[in-house]
């Protein structure tokens, strides 16, 4: 197994562990909504500290239900992942293209040098240079 495959396997195992460990150990069982977002947790903490607190801003759009809010968040995450994947794929493709161009240039330069060397040898022989017929 190559080094990259080992690293990828380790990272995949780590991500799976991060998803399974909270469920396996029952983290959050004492809460009404065990895996609520940070916004809800912050709102609860602020209300406990200062019950008369009024927010400075209100959302521009409030989804009618939690399911729609979750769906919009998932769509946002998918679009972000798509943009990142496109960027990294484009970057890798450019790097591979540059490497191929360098290989072609090095191969073409070697072929040109070989032709020039062979051509110079032929030209010298036909001119009688260096063959003792001066």
From TrEMBL:
Principal cellular location given in the protein's record: membrane
Pathway: Cofactor biosynthesis; adenosylcobalamin biosynthesis
InterPro entries: CbiN (IPR003705)
Transmembrane segments: 71-90
Keywords, alphabetical: Cell membrane, Cobalamin biosynthesis, Cobalt, Cobalt transport, Ion transport, Membrane, Transmembrane, Transmembrane helix, Transport
Listed Low complexity bias regions: 107-126
Disordered: annotated segments: 101-134
Localisation: Cell membrane
Membrane topology: Multi-pass membrane protein
Family: Belongs to the CbiN family.
Subunit structure: Forms an energy-coupling factor (ECF) transporter complex composed of an ATP-binding protein (A component, CbiO), a transmembrane protein (T component, CbiQ) and 2 possible substrate-capture proteins (S components, CbiM and CbiN) of unknown stoichimetry.
Cited function: Part of the energy-coupling factor (ECF) transporter complex CbiMNOQ involved in cobalt import.
Annotated protein name in UniProt: Cobalt transport protein CbiN
Record organism: Streptomyces lusitanus
Gene: cbiN
């Amino acid at each position: 197994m190559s080094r990259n495959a080992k690293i990828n396997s380790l990272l995949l195992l780590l991500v799976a562990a991060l998803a399974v460990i909270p469920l396996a150990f029952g983290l959050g069982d004492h809460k009404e909504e065990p895996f609520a977002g940070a916004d809800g947790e912050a709102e609860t903490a602020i209300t406990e500290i200062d019950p008369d607190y009024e927010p400075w801003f209100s959302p521009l759009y409030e989804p009618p239900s939690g399911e729609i809010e979750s769906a919009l968040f998932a769509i946002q995450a998918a679009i972000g992942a798509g943009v990142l994947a496109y960027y990294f794929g484009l970057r890798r493709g450019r790097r591979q293209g540059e490497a191929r161009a360098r290989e072609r240039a090095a191969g073409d330069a070697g072929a040109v040098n070989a032709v020039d060397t062979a051509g110079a040898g032929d030209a010298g022989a036909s001119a009688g240079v260096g063959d003792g017929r001066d």
